[in-house]
Amino acid sequence: MKIKKVIPCLILVFNLLIGCEEKPYFKEIVSNKNVTISIREIEGERFKVLNIPLEFSLNLNQKDVKDVGIYYYIDYKRAMDPQDYLIYNGETNKPIFAIEDLEYGKYPKSIYIVDRRFRLTNEQAIEMINKYASNQSLINLKTKNDTISLVSYKKFREDYPGFLEKMRKEPDTLKLSIGFRKGREEVFSEKINW
After folding, report:
1. Mind listing the pLDDT tens digit for each residue in 15-55?
2. Which PROSITE patterns would you find in this protein's record (predicted)?
3. Spans of all domains in the chain
4. Which of 20, 67, 176, 179 stands 20 to 30 A from 165 (CA)?
């Protein structure tokens, strides 16, 4: 008789423990999306930039998640200039201007941030083009919409460990401000591993 009463209690406790397990809402993954070179223009000055895709898997389509805000911090400062970074839906490759504008319950399974703050000299750009895209030329970069695709970020990390070491000295961070049902709000952050 006692065993029949204990088993349902154990099942209930087990289900409660599983339900209370804290799931990470996002996690950085090493992207296979390509590093590119493009042109930027600020106040009449044109220069070449290296565009680095930082990818994150998302776990936001949960019953208690009501709304989400996304914030990117560069060297401890909140990045405000959309020219320095762009956010894309990882599934569709379409820009996301604000994740909170997306429909509740239909958040993407991944996003990537294209960090665009890295200026290149002509020599650096030519060296990378010769290494990864020898059929391309700086002449192909005429407007700010032109890009030269180089290599996957995964391969770039292998080839430029010094770049990664430099980036890790001043940490960058992705923060999600998540609003939950019943008015609770929390900020979750993860340091970029570069």
Report:
1. 444 444 456 899 999 999 999 999 998 888 999 999 999 99
2. PROKAR_LIPOPROTEIN
3. 26-64+85-171
4. 176
